[in-house]
Amino acid sequence: MKREPIILSIETSCDETAAAVTLGRQILSNVVWSQIAIHRPWGGVVPSLAKRAHQEHIDEVVNTAIKPVNWQKIDAVAVTAGPGLAIALEVGIKKAKEIAEKYKKPLIAVDHMEGHLLSSLAKNFKFHPANGGANFKLEFPALGLLVSGGHTELVLVKEIGQYQILGQTLDDAAGEAFDKVAKMLGLGYPGGPIISQLAEGGDEAKFDLPVPMVRSQSLNFSFSGLKTACLYKLKEIPHKRRDEQFIKDFAASFQSALVQSIVLKLKKAIERYHPQQVLLGGGVINNLALLQQIKQVARQYQVSVLVPYSKKLLTDNAAMIGVAAYYKFKRKEFVKNINKLDRKPNLSLEEYLFL
Amino acid sequence: MKSINDGKNFRVVTGSPRETKKLAQKIFQENKKELRNRCLIFALQGELGTGKTQLAKGLGRALGIKETIVSPSFTLIREYPFEVGGRRGIFYHLDAWRIETAEEWLALDVRGLIKPGNVVAIEWPEKGRETWDKIFDSLAVKVVWVNLEHQGKGERIISQPRRLGGPE
């Protein structure tokens, strides 16, 4: 094959029904149908709604994603096998199997977290200039920092496909902490964007909240102590005294403690593993305060930072699955027996997903 | 750890996450024998930050699970295979924080997880209590209800009301 492989990817691990077509690392289409609007009245994901919504939208999303090419042009179909919500993963896997069988294409099973990890390697149609354009070269070891609603992980990338988890959350994920503190403050869902917006007008030194895991030498994260500290602090202040400025100051103080905690672990990981590059992924990277501090640390240690070229690549999407699938395609890691591919709700990046 | 005996409820005050985990191990040991022919369910009721996940971590330790038990708020269900005393099973950690009604659990086929020999910890079981009661009543289960409350200064009151669900 002279050209790079064209891959159709499907991702339905949680809230989003997504499909994308990639040519090598280049994104030809990236369609995401978000369920956040459906979920908002409930303050979270409602699983049967999630499943029904995935089933209702998957055909439309896939048919839109395929438009830049035609079915016969596809070289492989890729799908997220895990981690995620079992019944949601099932919908995508079923669809991917159907397409692979109908058009006789090989199937590639992808780890959702590998998608986030490699999302910054995605290219737009002109190549992403921030990543060195066509001359961009990934250097190893690299360090992945993945921060989302369900995950907070530091990953050592020895090579693409070879990962070691250096640290992860021991309790709540960072995005979850945003959601829970937003709920305590009576704000909406998802909590991250709301808190970060409010924090811009707030004083982060106003409330003394503990920075989690300061003394711990491990690279693990923990946000449940911060969550509880927020709860105690809020109990001291009656609702009637919580004006707009109070909410802004509290949001800023909370965000600052959380960001400091993440950045502290990033520094430790850089000092211990001397990575050439830091790869960022996950929806919480959209938080500007976090991104700015990460970049500052990277400058301090003279390590380059790779960030996906669009916000859409940070939250759940299928194009990132396509990028991970591209490397698997090159390594010829196809699903051997399509019928045996099953959802893996607890999949970890250290597991070898070659089925 | 201080025990308070008011004659009706089993009440303990824990002063740290570590103590909460220890208490969980103790509660598990007291109910372990039930695993022979029933599913052991721990229904953990309490506000945000009262230590429900800590308690689940303690259960995981009692089951010899090496993996880190993390909050399932986002993924709703996490599962961990275990082997304790030569008995194999799966520990399911459920979290209804993002769920409004227990009917949603039926869509997740939660009944399929409740099998003799398995252990299920449920956070926020008070959401849709009636549905949970119906599920429990129709299956071979032993339900241990655990209430967690804040008591200032980092302390938690952890109590087991005597009969709030499941046969004694």
TrEMBL record, chain A:
Annotated positions binding substrate: 146-150, 179, 192, 287
Gene3D superfamilies with a match to the protein in the record: 3.30.420.40
First-listed, main subcellular location of the protein, grouped into a coarse class: cytoplasm
Catalysed reactions listed for this entry: L-threonylcarbamoyladenylate + adenosine(37) in tRNA = N(6)-L-threonylcarbamoyladenosine(37) in tRNA + AMP + H(+)
Pfam family, one: TsaD
GO cellular component, as recorded: cytoplasm
EC number: 2.3.1.234
GO biological process: tRNA threonylcarbamoyladenosine modification
Keyword match Iron: yes
MF terms in GO: iron ion binding; tRNA N(6)-L-threonylcarbamoyladenine synthase activity
Residues bound to Fe cation: 112, 116, 316
Keyword Glycosyltransferase applies: no
Comment on bound cofactor: Binds 1 Fe(2+) ion per subunit.
Cofactor: Fe(2+)
Family as reported in the entry's similarity comment: Belongs to the KAE1 / TsaD family.
NCBIfam families: gcp_kae1, T6A_TsaD_YgjD
Name listed for the protein in its UniProt record: tRNA N6-adenosine threonylcarbamoyltransferase
Lineage: Bacteria, Candidatus Shapironibacteriota
From TrEMBL, chain B:
Protein name: tRNA threonylcarbamoyladenosine biosynthesis protein TsaE
Species for this entry: Candidatus Shapirobacteria bacterium CG09_land_8_20_14_0_10_38_17
Presence of keyword rRNA-binding: no
Gene Ontology terms: biological process: tRNA threonylcarbamoyladenosine modification
Family: Belongs to the TsaE family.
An annotated Gene Ontology molecular function: transferase activity
Lineage: Bacteria, Candidatus Shapironibacteriota
This protein's UniProt keywords: ATP-binding, Cytoplasm, Magnesium, Metal-binding, Nucleotide-binding, Transferase, tRNA processing
Cellular localization per UniProt: Cytoplasm
GO annotations of cellular component type: cytoplasm
Superkingdom of the source species: Bacteria
